[in-house]
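Hello Y.,

Per our agreement to keep a running log of every chain we model this quarter, I'm adding this entry. I've kept the format consistent with earlier entries: sequence first, then predicted structure.
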Amino acid sequence: MENPMPENDLEAKTDTMLEAALGGLTPHQLLIQASLAEAANVAEREAAKAKNRERALKLLEAIEKSQG
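Predicted structure for the entry above:
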């Protein structure tokens, strides 16, 4: 059976892994970055909805014309 890692080593490794996961950013900076990315994603989805609505209206118009 392996010996458990000393607590100081575990904390140091955990800190190193957390720092690597954050990409050198502070947690606050990472939160801001994620928030900005989400806002951009919302804008993209809204643009896609508008484009889909426009296409649907054109399709509906074409269907109505074809039915006379």
